[in-house]
Amino acid sequence: MISYKYKSPNYNERVKDSKVEFIIIHYTGLDMEFDKVINWFLSKGSEVSCHFLIDKSGEIYNLVDLSKRAWHAGKSCWSNCIDINSHSIGIELHNSGTEDFTSHQFESLVKLIKKLMSENAIQSWDILGHSDVSIGRKIDPGIKFPWHQLAIENISYFSSLSQGNFDIDISDNNNPQSIKEIQNKLISIGYDINKSGVFDPQTVEGLKAFQRHWRPAAVNGLLDRSTKNILSDVCEKFNQFRSEF
Ligand SMILES: [Zn+2]
Question: How far apart are CA 234 and CA 4, in angstroms?
Fold first, then answer.
């Protein structure tokens, strides 16, 4: 199932006693053939790598040993963890960012995530996108990534409120109490934003990151009614998951 024929030199040691808690999903984003993508991860000069790369046919390549710290997340933060590379497994999907993921690729991803979750005691709510942990800096795995299908496989949560018509009323946008509540909710899910109490650029980026994951049909950075409702739902579910654990 997993090919070990390629090895990336781009890794170092995980920080001492770090627990692998997260799986971070990426797209390669490079409009290149697979050979060029693999060469990029194998070249010392690129200084990037991942633990697994999945091609469009669904073949899985292990590029860095799981015990090592692969260089996939860069500057990132989730739930106050600022060394995501030490605490995660990085999975890259060969995808330009503007095309659909293939069904073979998705099936392999699901199998791989399930295996990694059981072997490393990783929880479903800790399966994240690069855009979740690198707000304002990264947008992968992008709005084409089927988070709702991962939820069907019980390896993610997707709000039922994310489907259907959106109520995009934004009349509440400038209410400071409401903005504070929104920031608290984003932070309690894990997003790295400050509790500024104002609708500032970092809040817009935080909302966009949230929408990429939970309302990919409309990533607008606005505090519309639909975003608020989905945010409340996801926040409540995450708190429930974590308290049960
Ligand atoms: Zn990425």
Answer: 37
Please, which residues have CB less than 5 A from ligand 1, an ion? 26, 130, 140
Number of Cα atoms under 13 Å in the Cβ half of residue 131: 23
- Band the pLDDT of 181: cuts 50, 70, 90: very high
CATH of 2-152, one of 3.40.80.10, 1.20.120.290, 3.30.1230.20, 3.40.1160.10: 3.40.80.10
pTM score: 0.96
Q: How confident is the model at residue 173 (pLDDT cuts 50, 70, 90)?
A: low
- For ligand 1, the distance from its centroid to the CA atom of residue 166, given in whole angstroms, is 28
Please tell me the distance between residue 209's alpha carbon and the centre of ligand 1 in angstroms: 13
| Ligand 1 centroid, distance to 173 Cα (angstroms) | 31
Examine the pLDDT at 82 and tell me if it is beyond 90.
yes
Task: Give the class (CATH, top level) of 160-244.
Answer: mainly alpha
CA separation for the pair 12, 86 (Å, rounded): 9
